[in-house]
Amino acid sequence: MIRKRKRILKILLALVVLFLALGAVAFFLPQKLLCVDSGPVSGDAIIVLGGGLGERPARAAELFKEHDAPRIIVSGFGDCEINRRILLKAGVPADAIQIEGNSRTTRENAEFTIRLLRAGNARRVILVTSWYHSRRALACFEHFAPEIQFFSRPSYFAVARADWLHRDIERRVYLEYGKLAGYCVCYGVWPF
């Protein structure tokens, strides 16, 4: 009986230590957990997810100019027209931009945009979002369209921790952990 209690206590202690270690990594090294960058790739399309502060379409325009993909799909209710204007101002031709303006969540970004990708026979797609959103976005698109190969090329806006307070990034980063867990539980989207 005493051995059994000691064993249970050791297991509980190990779990507490593991939980604290994961919490420390999540707090001190969020970029290591949240950011996924596939590196230089080419694809059939670039998808710009709504949100951010204009850094996402700027990154997509950069990738377009590097000839990483011949077209850009702008996804997200409310942000799509703003992001389209940023792309046009950055020199992306209007006929290379397609709009998906109904999605309000990352899951809807994936579901609605995947319909357009399938209709266009896209096989390799580059996702552009903020660095802290890249893991969940990539996992979500891969979950809903496993036949398409997705790559992540995030924008690195406000990576330095000193920039977080001025741009409300800290709150967004820590909310992302809850969203990762929520997407796993609600939609079966496993991010790791």
Describe the protein's architecture and organization:
This protein is of the alpha/beta class. It has 2 domains: 2-31; 35-187, Rossmann fold (3-Layer(aba) Sandwich). The protein has helices spanning 2-28, 30-34, 55-65, 80-89, 106-119, 134-144, 161-167, 169-187, and strands spanning 45-49, 72-75, 97-100, 124-128, 149-152. Strand 2, helix 4 (80-89) and strand 3 (97-100) form a beta-alpha-beta unit. Helix 3 (55-65) crosses helix 4 (80-89) and helix 5 (106-119) packs across helix 6. The longest helix has 27 residues, at 2-28. The model has no long low-confidence stretch (mean pLDDT 89).
List the helices and strands and how they pair.
Blueprint: H1 2-28, H2 30-34, E1 45-49, H3 55-65, E2 72-75, H4 80-89, E3 97-100, H5 106-119, E4 124-128, H6 134-144, E5 149-152, H7 161-167, H8 169-187
Parallel strand pairs: 1-2, 1-4, 2-3, 4-5
Helix pairs in contact: 3-4, 5-6
Per DSSP, what share of the residues sits in E-state strands of 2 or more residues? 5-15%
Q: What is the percent of helical residues?
A: 40-55%
CATH topology of the largest domain: Rossmann fold
Summed over residues and divided by their number, the pLDDT gives a mean of 89
Q: How widely separated are the two ends?
A: 39 Å
Name the strands of the widest sheet in spatial order. 3-2-1-4-5
Radius of gyration: 19 Å
What is the SS-derived class? alpha/beta
Q: How many DSSP E strands?
A: 5
The total count of helices amounts to: 8
Mind summarizing the main beta sheet? Answer: 5 strands, parallel
Query: What is the CATH homologous superfamily assignment of the largest domain?
Result: HUPs
CATH secondary-structure class of the largest domain: Alpha Beta
